DNA sequence: GAATTATATTCGTCTTGACGAATATGTAAA
DNA sequence: TTTACATATTCGTCAAGACGAATATAATTC
């Protein structure tokens, strides 16, 4: 049988939001689908660390992953729990108010506009906006 | 110098919400001020466990305590962070939908109506409703 | 098919936090 | 002032999780 995605759990959801790195990742995703290498570049953190936090978010039912050749794209998905969905939305809005989070997004924009300056992103697929209805939990 | 209440921290806030016992405590408080012995009775848990979780919630800036003779009363306070305040509100509303949380509240009501049947609550001050403007963080 | 690239997982270590048991503190009552 | 009561804190243990380092996997390119 397949790995069996655990049913949505509110405590797990909160635990997932209780970490700075994961909040930064969520802030970067916003309504975009982003490839792992971008997270690594923008957060300036080791790749295994990024992957582990993304896995945690996926287990908590907050993000979903899509494979695209060598690359993996992550995006935020709307949790099945209605309150959690609202909370996630408010959290993202609140993060955007923080200076450090704005700086992260700023660096992301810069990386997208002038990818030539970021050698680790050569050939990497840039983030793409996702339509609000796209967020079903496909793993 | 005094113990120095740490400034409000969003990660800490989420970590505080990421525990079942603490969610039960918050659900019981709702808009009432409740004495520790009631938590112990309703959750049927060891008193030190209850006290530790209440301390955690207090450190996270989610509840405040008031001493009243031998008793300590706890109540929910509105976090200074606007998003956190909203999130807390939604979380409480969401908890009320859960059957187990309703059962907790049900037992609390029963204990208040017929305290004679709960020998651990003899002489304990019953929960009291708090006015919505009362929730400033007095420790 | 071997080398490369992108990402995931494992391992060892350390910190945080949850728990029960025991003990300390703070207040009131005797 | 002892005693009892309500609550808080400490201690030892254990599990979860965060991290860097190393390694494994999966897809692509040569």
Question: Mind sketching the topology for me?
Answer:
The structure is a homodimer of 139-residue chains.
Chain A: H1 10-17, H2 20-29, E1 32-35, H3 36-43, H4 47-59, E2 63-68, E3 71-76, H5 82-95, H6 99-113, E4 128-129
Antiparallel strand pairs in A: 1-3, 1-4, 2-3
Chain A binds a DNA duplex (30 and 30 nucleotides) through residues 15, 19, 21, 35-37, 46-56, 67, 69-72, 123-124.
Tell me about this structure:
The structure is a homodimer of 139-residue chains. Chain A contains 6 helices and 4 strands, in the order H-H-E-H-H-E-E-H-H-E. With 139 residues, the first copy, chain A, is α+β, with helices and mostly antiparallel strands. The first copy, chain A, has a single domain (10-128), classed as Orthogonal Bundle (Arc Repressor Mutant, subunit A), CATH 1.10.10. Chain A has a 4-stranded antiparallel beta sheet. The longest helix of chain A has 15 residues, at 99-113. In chain A, 31% of the residues are buried. The model of chain A has no long low-confidence stretch (mean pLDDT 90). At the A-B interface, helix 1 and helix 5 of A face helix 1 and helix 5 of B. Chain A binds a DNA duplex (30 and 30 nucleotides) through residues 15, 19, 21, 35-37, 46-56, 67, 69-72, 123-124.
